[in-house]
C-alpha cells in the first residue's frame, strides 16, 4: 500500500513539474517588458509571436496626434491599416523610419527613412527609385481623423530579410505632405506622431 502511495506521489510531482515547464515555454513568444525611457515615457516591448502587429502611435512635437497601425501578413504581402486622430485637416505624409525608438520629443530618435536598398527618396513604385519606408500621403478629415490602408509584397514581418523586414522600424506621421522629390525627406515637415514596430 505504501509503495502505491509513494508511486502516486512521484507521479503527481512529475506531472505538475512538466505542466509548469510547458506553461513557461508557451509564454516565451508573448513576453512583455515595460521600461522607462529618457523622457520618462513608458515603452512597451513585445517579442513577435508570428501573428499580426498592432502598433500604438503617440503624439510628438507638441501635437495631439495619436492612433494605431495594424500590420497583417497576407500570403506574400503585408497590409497596413492606419487609424489616427488629432490631425490638422488635409494631407499628411507617413513613412517607416530606420529605428524603433520614439524616445525623442520630436521623434528624431527614429533616424531617417528606412532605405535598406540605398535608393533615392520618391513616390512608392516610381521607376526613379524610392525608399522602402516611403509609404506616401493620406488625408485627414475636417474633424482631424483619418484611416489609411497600404499593402505591398516588398515588406515582411519577421522574415529576417534586411531589405524587407519591418521589425525594429518606426512609423512616423509628418505635419506636412511628401512632395516625393526633395531629398532625402520629401519636405514633409515635423514628426508629429510616432510608433515603434516591435523588435
What is the topology?
Blueprint: H1 2-26, E1 32-36, E2 42-46, E3 53-59, E4 66-74, E5 77-85, E6 90-97, E7 136-140, E8 146-152, E9 170-174, E10 191-196
Antiparallel strand pairs: 1-2, 3-4, 3-10, 4-5, 5-8, 6-7, 6-9, 9-10
Describe the structure in your own words.
The protein has one helix spanning 2-26, and strands spanning 32-36, 42-46, 53-59, 66-74, 77-85, 90-97, 136-140, 146-152, 170-174, 191-196. By secondary structure, the chain is mainly beta. The chain folds into 2 domains: 1-30; 32-196, Superoxide dismutase, copper/zinc binding domain (Immunoglobulin-like), CATH 2.60.40.200. An 8-stranded antiparallel sheet has the order 7-6-9-10-3-4-5-8, with no helix packed on it. A two-stranded antiparallel sheet has the order 1-2. The longest helix has 25 residues, at 2-26.
Order of helices and strands: HEEEEEEEEEE
How many domains?
Answer: 2
Q: What percentage of amino acids are in beta strands?
A: 25-35%
Can you count the beta strands?
Answer: 10
Basic shape: globular
Number of helices: 1
| Oligomer category | single chain
Percent in helix: 10-25%
Mean pLDDT: 81
| Helix vs. strand class | mainly beta
Largest sheet report: 8 strands, antiparallel
State the CATH superfamily name of the largest domain: Superoxide dismutase, copper/zinc binding domain
Distance between the termini: 56 Å
> Can you tell me the CATH architecture of the largest domain?
Sandwich
Just give the CATH class of the largest domain.
Mainly Beta
Write out the strand line-up for the largest beta sheet, numbering strands in chain order.
Answer: 7-6-9-10-3-4-5-8
Low-confidence stretches: 6-47
| Radius of gyration, in angstroms, nearest whole number | 22 Å
Amino acid at each position: 500500500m505504501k509503495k502505491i502511495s509513494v508511486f502516486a506521489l512521484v507521479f503527481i510531482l512529475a506531472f505538475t513539474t512538466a505542466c509548469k515547464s510547458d506553461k513557461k515555454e508557451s509564454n516565451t513568444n508573448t513576453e512583455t517588458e515595460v521600461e522607462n525611457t529618457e523622457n520618462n515615457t513608458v515603452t512597451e516591448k513585445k517579442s513577435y509571436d508570428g501573428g499580426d502587429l498592432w502598433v500604438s502611435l503617440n503624439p510628438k512635437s507638441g501635437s495631439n496626434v495619436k492612433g494605431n497601425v495594424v500590420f497583417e501578413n497576407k500570403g506574400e504581402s503585408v497590409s497596413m491599416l492606419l487609424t489616427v486622430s488629432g490631425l490638422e485637416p488635409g494631407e499628411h505624409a507617413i513613412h517607416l523610419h530606420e529605428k524603433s525608438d520614439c524616445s525623442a520629443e520630436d521623434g528624431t530618435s527614429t533616424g531617417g527613412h528606412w532605405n535598406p536598398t540605398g535608393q533615392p527618396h520618391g513616390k512608392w513604385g516610381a521607376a526613379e527609385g524610392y525608399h522602402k519606408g516611403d509609404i506616401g500621403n493620406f488625408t485627414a478629415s475636417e474633424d482631424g481623423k483619418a484611416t489609411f490602408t497600404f499593402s505591398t509584397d516588398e515588406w515582411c514581418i519577421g522574415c529576417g530579410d534586411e531589405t524587407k523586414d519591418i521589425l525594429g522600424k518606426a512609423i512616423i506621421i509628418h505635419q506636412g505632405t511628401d512632395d516625393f522629390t526633395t531629398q532625402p525627406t520629401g519636405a514633409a515637415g515635423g514628426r508629429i506622431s510616432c510608433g515603434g514596430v516591435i523588435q
